[in-house]
Design a protein that fits this description.
Chain A: It comes from Herrania umbratica. The structure holds 2 protein chains of 2 kinds. Chain A is an alpha+beta fold. Chain A has helices at 2-24, 126-131, 137-202, and strands spanning 33-40, 46-54, 67-72, 78-85, 87-93, 98-105, 113-121. Chain A is built from 3 helices and 7 strands, in the order H-E-E-E-E-E-E-E-H-H. In chain A, strands 1-6-3-4 form a 4-stranded antiparallel β-sheet, with no helix packed on it. Chain A has a 3-stranded antiparallel β-sheet with strand order 5-2-7, covered by helices on one side. The model of chain B is unreliable at 1-20 (pLDDT under 50). Chain B has helices at residues 129-136, 140-208, and strands spanning 12-15, 22-28, 32-39, 44-51, 66-71, 77-84, 86-92, 97-104, 113-122. The chains are: A alpha+beta, B alpha+beta.
């Protein structure tokens, strides 16, 4: 009966932990690739974005070597490639329209969280102006302005994600410092108590008095 | 609300805020994927999702059904749908924080991978501009400029938010440093007092044993 209860508890705790990890964060699966698809409407569009790896649990290991980021065009060519980073910005001009694949690859077993932002920006060109009579030259200027504002927004997202990671690191450092100090005190007191007990034992009458 | 799949593979990719992109990702049967987004309080958010049909014209097979849940950081569910192919949700975020949209498919014996198209807009991009255009009878140019103005306002607010976070971080670091300062004094005091107690205890012990 007790064994059954023990097993049930273990299972519930496992499920609960899984649920807790669902809520509190964010992890890329072990040793795997996670891909996101984004459709680019026009050829020549500027695809920009950034991503930040939020270190999950910093226990004994110091730095995670980083994750790999690959962008594949609809034709299958690799348009952009970054290896072993913990976060970076990227920007490229799309050589053709279609579905682009943005992949994150985690080479190690510890799960990692990635916060990312991808933006596809289109500025009407002379060709588009000629085709569509509703488009004014001023629309080009407005589009340029919009793209400039988008770049500011993207930068803010990047800063926000990095700030979150920095905050996470600081909070973990604080907890660890306090934890290690308390453990240090306890160990010191324990060591000195053991010393005293040992010395007392050396002088106890039951252990031969003449030994000392 | 515990997701009882034996292989709960959690993937959460945090999308860095008002992205108006339609995101596509792959979902394997029996697995869960979650996307989280940081939403400020009292901001509108709108989401649309559908399963991409691999064969155009034919209806989707029964196995290609999604279970969706949108929850806040505190666990309140804002939207939930079981075994649907398409759907949408919209709400005003009462609490600020990370909102998570989780997708899950039931297990299937040959493992199938389906593509889910998910469009999640918050903040500026969630506003329904076509309604604004109709109401005010504004022309296209003015609408574009209104959009730019809203974007600039949101950038401004975001800067305030980042400044606040930076200040909080500074305070945290300051608190950690001062705590370390006091803790080091405490450890010195503890060390000396433990040594003193040892010495006093052993002295009285030996005096009792008439060795001194």
């Amino acid at each position: 009966m007790e064994k059954g209860w023990g097993k049930m508890w273990a299972l519930m705790v496992l499920l609960l932990l899984n649920w807790v990890s669902n809520i509190s964060s964010l992890s890329v699966t072990v040793n795997e690739v996670e891909c996101v698809y984004e459709y680019v409407l026009y050829e020549g569009d500027t695809v920009s974005g950034n991503f930040v790896v939020v270190d999950h649990d910093i226990f004994w290991s110091s730095d995670h070597p980083g994750i790999d980021f690959t962008v594949t065009s609809p034709g299958g060519n690799t348009v952009h490639n970054l290896k072993g980073t913990s976060g970076d910005k990227f920007e490229f001009k799309a050589p053709r329209s279609g579905m682009y694949k943005f992949c994150f690859h985690n080479p190690y077993s510890t799960p990692e969280t990635v916060s990312f932002y991808i933006h596809v920006g289109h500025i009407p060109t002379e060709h588009d102006l000629a085709k569509d009579e509703h488009l004014d030259p001023i629309n080009v200027k407005i589009a340029e302005l919009r793209e400039a504002l988008e770049s500011v927004t993207a930068e803010q997202k990047y800063l926000k994600a990095r700030d979150a990671r920095h905050r996470h690191t600081n909070e973990s450092t604080r907890k660890r410092v306090i934890g290690y100090t308390v453990v240090e005190y306890v160990l010191l007191a324990l060591a000195s108590a053991l010393q005293v007990i040992y010395i007392r034992q050396l002088f106890s009458k039951s252990v031969a008095y003449n030994r000392v | 609300m515990i997701l009882r799949s034996l292989q709960i593979v959690v993937l959460v990719l945090g999308i860095l805020s008002p992205a108006s992109q339609s995101l596509r990702f792959e979902l394997q049967s029996g697995h869960t994927k979650c996307i989280s987004e940081d939403i400020k309080s009292n901001s509108m958010t709108v989401g649309k999702y559908h399963v991409v049909n691999p064969n155009e014209g034919h209806p989707l097979p029964d196995s290609h059904k999604l279970t969706v849940r949108v929850t806040s950081t505190y666990g309140n569910s804002f939207h939930s749908a079981e075994k649907v192919e398409t759907g949408q949700f919209g709400f005003t975020a009462a609490e600020a924080g990370d909102y998570m949209a989780c997708f899950w498919t039931p297990d299937h014996s040959p493992q199938i991978t389906m593509t889910v198209d998910f469009d999640w807009r918050t903040g500026v991009h969630a506003k329904d501009w076509s309604n604004v255009a109709k109401k005010g009878q504004v022309d296209v140019m003015e609408l574009e400029l209104k959009k730019l103005y809203d974007t600039v306002t949101s950038i401004h607010e975001e800067m305030f938010y980042l400044r606040e976070r930076e200040e909080e971080m500074q305070e945290l670091n300051q608190a950690t440093t001062s705590k370390m300062f006091w803790l080091s004094f405490l450890s010195l005091f503890l060390c000396l007092s433990v040594a003193g107690m040892q010495f006093w205890h052993l002295k009285t012990f030996f005096e009792k044993k008439k060795l001194i």
